[in-house]
Amino acid sequence: MFKLTKRTVEALEIRDQDYLVWDRDMRGFGVRIYPSGKRT
Fold first, then answer.
1. Is the pTM of this model over 0.90?
2. What single-letter DSSP state applies at residue 28?
3. What is the pLDDT at residue 2?
4. d(CA 1, CA 31)
């Protein structure tokens, strides 16, 4: 886990399945990366 910033979110790799990455400082805050490249 690491601090989620615009730069780190854009650098996350695209995988065959969607996955979640959680922020290390703000509990419950994360981003989901889809195989299509969409990030939410």
1. no
2. T
3. 84
4. 12
User: Rounded to an integer, what distance in angstroms lies between the CA atom of residue 36 and that of residue 34?
Assistant: 5
Q: How far apart are CA 17 and CA 29, in angstroms?
A: 20
* Amino acid at residue number 27: R
The CA distance from 40 to 28, in Å, is 14
State both tokens at 33.
């990366």
What is the tens place of the pLDDT at every residue in 1-40? 789 999 999 999 999 999 999 999 999 999 999 999 999 9
Tokens 């690491």, located at residue: 2
